[in-house]
């Protein structure tokens, strides 16, 4: 029972990190989380320790952990690896997507468009995460998927910085739409190219933001 609860809490924290619901530098206190979720500290501690071991969180004194801060150098290193791995996953996934998965991807795009128009950052990020990870999970390569999700756990918290100092750009959804059309046609190479453009556009914006913060 305790192991099941720890797994549930781990998945909840993991999904929050993937979708950018936590801020870089944010401290996560075991007792606060246990009180919020109505559980004892033990399963919360176990869930957090798993994420620390995966590099998604950093341990701190006084029984708390924190979301790592992001530097320009670290983000650039993560981005370089993501570009290759995620592009490959898209190409592998293209011929394997079911009708239900394609329908879900289409719904994600529609909701992201609406979120951008309403300037709802978290709503956009939630569906952005769902779109990408649904697509990558169809690649039929569990090793590749584990590597991608590990990288997303590290960069996800920085995604919610994307719109704090700039207007939302409707162009953020253009590459998703291009990739989706290629996926509908079963064209893995075109879908990969569109997704790599998406990652490059998104990544460059965040790199520029880190550059401004540094100076």
Summarize the structure in short:
Keywords: DNA-binding, Transcription, Transcription regulation. 71% of the residues lie in helices and 4% in strands.
Question: Can you walk me through this structure?
Answer:
With 215 residues, the chain is mostly helical. The protein folds into 2 domains: 2-66, Arc Repressor Mutant, subunit A (Orthogonal Bundle); 72-214, GntR ligand-binding domain-like (Four Helix Bundle (Hemerythrin (Met), subunit A)), CATH 1.20.120. Helix content is 71%, strand content 4%. The radius of gyration is 18 Å and the shape is globular.
Question: What order do the helices and strands come in, and which of them pair?
Answer:
Blueprint: H1 2-18, E1 27-29, H2 30-37, H3 41-53, E2 58-60, E3 64-66, H4 72-93, H5 99-118, H6 121-137, H7 142-159, H8 174-184, H9 188-214
* CATH class term of the largest domain: Mainly Alpha
Shape: globular
Bin the helical content.
Answer: over 70%
**Count of runs of 4 or more consecutive helical residues:** 9
GO molecular function, one term: DNA binding
Protein name: FCD domain-containing protein
Keywords: DNA-binding, Transcription, Transcription regulation
Pfam family, one: GntR
Task: Throw out a few tags for this protein.
3-stranded antiparallel β-sheet; mainly alpha; Arc Repressor Mutant, subunit A; 215 residues; Four Helix Bundle (Hemerythrin (Met), subunit A); 9 helices
